[in-house]
Amino acid sequence: MGGRHVKRIRDRWLRWCSTVGAWPASGKHDREDLKAIQRLHQDSEQRFRVLLESLPRVAVQGYDRQRRVIYWNEASARLYGYPTEVAMGRLLEDLIIPDPMRQPVVEAHRAWVEQGQAIPADELELRHRSGEPVPVFSHHVMLGEHTDNPLMFCVDIDLSDQKRAHRDLAFATRFDQLTHLPNRQAFEADLDERLDRCRRQGRSLTVLYLDIDRFAEINDAFGYAQGDQILIELTRRLRHRQRSGDLMSRVSGDEFVMAFPGVGDAEARRTVVESVRSVFDRPFEVDGIARAVTASLGLSVFPDHGRVARELIRNADVAKNRAKLDGQGSLQGFQQHYHDALVRQHRLAERLEHAIANRELSLHYQPQVSAVSGRIENLEALLRWEPTDGEAVSPAEFIPLAERSGLIERLGDWVVEEACRQQAAWRAVGVEALRIDINLSGRQVRAPETLERLEACVARHGLEPQDIGIELTENVLIEANEDVLTRLRRLYRRGVRIAIDDFGTGYSSLSYLKLFPLTTLKIDRSFVRDAPRQPEDRAIMEAAVFIGHRLGLEVVAEGVETAEQLALVREMRCDLVQGYYYHRPLPVAEVQRLLLAQLEHAP
Ligand code: C2E
Ligand code: MG
Ligand code: MG
């Protein structure tokens, strides 16, 4: 091999060494080369150190054969709390190894040094100077393995942030941020576990659903921050009363669910209910003012009302909704027919969707007759639903369903169209001067276009405004905003008859009557029914008729069934009578027969 060739190889070798910072194991160097190589080495070692020092999150430590610290970078000082000068020379296991890991670490190191068994990289929990655990991912590198002085370098990456993020995430998926109570999912899982235990031990368990009354009003009136304060304070009070083994969750906005293992009989149930209720004895502070808060409670019991968490929670919720109907602060235990009723309503609502398309709807007409002459003066249109696959359903049942599902607007439009069509058809066969009244529910009246559509429909069928009237219940009128009242007033001025229906069952304030654009007052059936026997009902009815007349309204007595009732409403001078005594609601053909017969006998 020629000298030039050897020199070229040596140069290339030195260049390589300078980039990786390695030192050629042997070889001859002339003085310059040696100096250059030393300089390169120093430079490269310097670069390496700078690199290690500048990685804030990579902690590097070097240990000698006895595991004494020989290198400890800034990041190590920060991560483990020992400054470099304190750490140097001390033993690995005395510094950052938690006691239970001490022996295994010493052995693993020895096995590496003596038998070459590398220590695999791993996630570890080491120890800070303060004793706090430090989660790291740790790599281990052995240098000079086969020499007298093997060095172990550990490269640790701090995992605290990741761990914290994990913990936060785990917390957020299990717990409610505001009250730190388990959320619905976590509660359900915990409850199922408790139920398994109850099943094995033959114990019962009671689930209590709690819903704060009128919480939305508190939020609206005082703001969400004050609402939150109430929720936090309520949580604190409820927690205070929990026994170990009881469970509690905030399942949504103002709803909490609790489970009481071992509570089954009536006496034990009463005790927990009393205990939960007592948290409302003291007022809650809102905006510096003491405010009374109440809650409605629903209760279900394992195993009678369900075998799994979801079922028990749902049934306690169903019972709670029943309690809400009884007024603030009520309690209801679950009963199977609550659930059956809900299922039926749900099915009905689904079938009602198709009622129009399936032509299952029709209108019946109930005549209103003159109290004096007995002649038919007016008709009330009443909606009928006969599903093709089942029995007829009462409007008292399906109208509220349609209100809730929003279907009422389509049903209502159908009713208006059908009543107008029928009215026009009767006009065509000579039945004139009769009015048809249509019932409008609250949601219909509030919908912006309903009344306009009604007017348009009346005009489209060539009818006059006074040919079709409307009936609204008292509560619909009381809850009407200025917008709705303005539209009603316009109808009134055009000559549309407007009746207040079921009068006396709502807020029952006579003074309201003058505020509304009305032509007719319909006294509720319950007064007519009870007036012959109950002097109070009779007095209210007399007052209503009197005031109605003084305000220039036409007064209709609803639900007249007997001669006795008829005599009474005549005596009170009601103008019109509606009820089974004269006529039930009738299908078109039958009403038409009546109307034509009346025409023939017209004076
Ligand atoms: P309402 O408007 O008060 O109608 C009077 C109800 O009393 C009718 O019940 C009628 O059949 C019944 N009735 C009439 N005379 C007597 C009587 O002498 N004795 C007894 N026991 N009952 C009598 P219906 O047809 O079951 O309707 C119930 C309610 O459903 C109606 O009460 C009304 O609020 C609502 N409704 C009916 N049709 C419609 C409609 O097309 N649209 C809307 N929004 N609601 C309707
Ligand atoms: Mg009515
Ligand atoms: Mg009525």
Q: So, CATH architecture of the largest domain?
A: Alpha-Beta Barrel
The fraction of residues in strands falls at 15-25%
Fraction of residues in helices?
Answer: 40-55%
Largest sheet features? 8 strands, mixed, barrel
- Supply the number of structural domains: 3
Measure the end-to-end span: 144 Å
Q: CATH homologous superfamily name of the largest domain? A: EAL domain
Number of strands: 20
How large is the radius of gyration? 43 Å
CATH level 1 class label of the largest domain: Alpha Beta
What form results from the Cα inertia axes?
A: elongated
Mean pLDDT across residues: 89
Task: Give the low-pLDDT segments.
Answer: 5-27
Explain this structure to me?
- With 603 residues, the chain is of the alpha/beta class.
- The protein folds into 3 domains: 3-163, Beta-Lactamase (2-Layer Sandwich); 176-334, Reverse transcriptase/Diguanylate cyclase domain (Alpha-Beta Plaits), CATH 3.30.70.270; 345-600, Alpha-Beta Barrel (TIM Barrel), CATH 3.20.20.450.
- Helix content is 48%, strand content 20%.
- Helix 1 packs parallel to helix 2 and helix 15 (408-428) runs parallel beside helix 17.
- The longest helix is centred in the N-terminal third of the chain and has 24 residues, at 31-54.
- The chain is elongated.
- The N and C termini lie far apart (144 Å).
- The model is unreliable at 5-27 (pLDDT under 50).
- The structure holds ligand C2E and magnesium ion (2 copies).
- One magnesium ion is lined by residues 380, 439, 471, 501.
